UniProtKB/TrEMBL annotation:
This is Phosphotransferase family enzyme. PANTHER family: AMINOGLYCOSIDE PHOSPHOTRANSFERASE DOMAIN-CONTAINING PROTEIN-RELATED, SLR1880 PROTEIN. It comes from Murimonas intestini. Transmembrane segments: none annotated. Pfam families: APH (PF01636). Residues 26-269 form the Aminoglycoside phosphotransferase domain. InterPro entries: Aminoglycoside_PTrfase (IPR002575), Kinase-like_dom_sf (IPR011009), Pseudomonas-type_ThrB (IPR050249).
Length: 371
């Protein structure tokens, strides 16, 4: 098999799974920031091709990959059953794990790298930028419905794959530490950005406070609802399958909503360097709000609905803090593809936060209208 790009352990891993046909090429795939993803193509007897996603899990981020896989197995098995009950196609509407030749759900290579294989979802797209509003609407339906499907999932069986993942107040503390430690000597060059975070501290504990007071319910949520984590069916244009299940954990619905807005309602890519192109589109905000509410099947409480704009602002601020903290710490968490990549990403998030504040009343009106 030809490898377009190699990471240690990949050959061993590619040979470890029960793939149909003859694997002939393995190439890097997608634009995720965390795992290392490849597409493996296999030739079948009749000359046609079959594809798989081969993924090395990020052990720096997911320190307990075996627990991570227990979650993914649990959630995909649960979803598969529900999709079958509802007359859907379980081979395309949820991720499907391909087992190893030894009958395991993942493979550990001789360097202790963790690998998994998913069936490749054919004839579907995932986007880094909204091309047409209906795609964003369909993604909202899919993410809302994902939460709806998991409403009766046994939450206590889920491992916390990343501790305090959306504990925004703790993220703020971690940010301050990174800025104070300044291990790369980069803080002096980003004083304006650091000041921006400090001035917005108040938003870092709003949602946590409401959760603590039980004014917002804890649900089983996806926690990483960006547009490229949902597959859109090429033929029907519908949201087909929610992917990237590594952070499915108890969480807040408004965070799932908000993370989608910060990524998908932006008028530019997450790493756009020309900030004049970056704003939060109210047209896309409305489209997503409508779809998410529909997808949740009316299960959002009054308070959750009221806090949707806050979810958008908080998730955007949190993500910006995480990017900036990673830039200050030497880019150890998110994959980067150029110098200052994390700084560029942080800047788009802060631009979006400022824009959302300006559009606050409009966002509230849109939510009220969609209720
Ligand atoms: P990361 O955690 O790094 O974001 P993902 O699991 O989201 O990794 O995968 C990265 C990208 O690979 C996705 O955005 C999507 O484009 C593609 N992808 C992942 N799983 C599948 C699949 N089963 N079928 C088709 N494409 C997939
Ligand atoms: C990461 O894995 P990916 O690329 O879908 C990150 C999210 C961030 C996002 C920013 C496990 O998502 O939390 O919001 O980058 N995932 C993890 O683009 O940290
Ligand atoms: Mg992803």
């Amino acid at each position: 098999m030809e490898f377009e790009s190699r990471v240690p352990g990949i050959e061993e891993a590619a040979g470890a799974f029960l793939l149909e046909g003859d694997p002939f090429i393995c190439r890097p795939y997608g634009s995720g920031h965390i795992n290392t993803t490849f597409r493996v193509s296999c030739r079948l007897g009749d000359g046609s091709h079959r594809h798989y996603i081969l993924q090395q899990m990020n052990k720096n981020v997911f320190t307990k990959p075996d627990q991570l896989m227990e979650n993914v197995v649990g959630v995909t098995t649960f979803l598969r059953k529900k999709i079958i009950e509802q007359g859907g196609d379980p081979d395309r509407e949820t991720l499907n794990i391909i087992k190893t030749k030894a009958g395991k759900n993942y493979f550990v290579d001789s360097l202790d790298g963790y690998w998994r294989v998913y069936q490749f979802i054919e004839d579907a797209f995932s986007y880094d930028l909204v091309e047409k509003p209906d795609d964003f609407y369909q993604s909202a339906l899919a993410f809302g419905n994902f939460q709806h499907l998991l409403a009766d999932y046994p939450a206590a069986t889920l491992h916390e794959t990343i501790e305090g993942f959306h504990d925004t107040a703790a993220r703020f503390e971690a940010f301050k530490k990174a800025a104070a430690a300044d291990v790369m000597g980069r803080a002096a060059g980003v004083q304006e950005e650091i000041r921006f975070v400090m001035e917005n501290e108040i938003y870092t504990h709003v949602l946590g406070d409401l959760l603590a007071k039980k004014e917002l319910p804890l649900r089983v949520t996806h926690n990483d609802t960006k547009l490229n984590n949902v597959m859109i069916d090429k033929a029907t244009g519908k949201g087909l399958c929610v992917i990237d299940l590594d952070t499915v954990m108890p969480g807040l619905s408004v965070n799932d909503f908000g993370d989608s807005i910060r990524f998908g309602a932006s008028t530019a890519l997450e790493d756009e360097q020309d900030l004049s192109k970056v704003s939060c589109s109210m047209e896309l905000f409305e489209v997503y709000t409508k779809g998410f509410m529909e997808g949740c099947h009316g299960s959002l409480t009054e308070k959750e609905t009221e806090m949707l704009p806050m979810g958008a602002l908080v998730m955007t601020l949190e993500c910006g803090m995480r990017f900036l903290a990673d830039y200050l710490s030497g880019d150890t968490y998110f994959k980067i593809h150029r110098e200052k990549h994390n700084l560029d990403r942080a800047r788009t998030q802060f631009k979006l936060v400022s824009d959302m504040k300006e559009k606050w009343e409009t966002m509230k009106e849109i939510v009220a209208k969609c209720r």
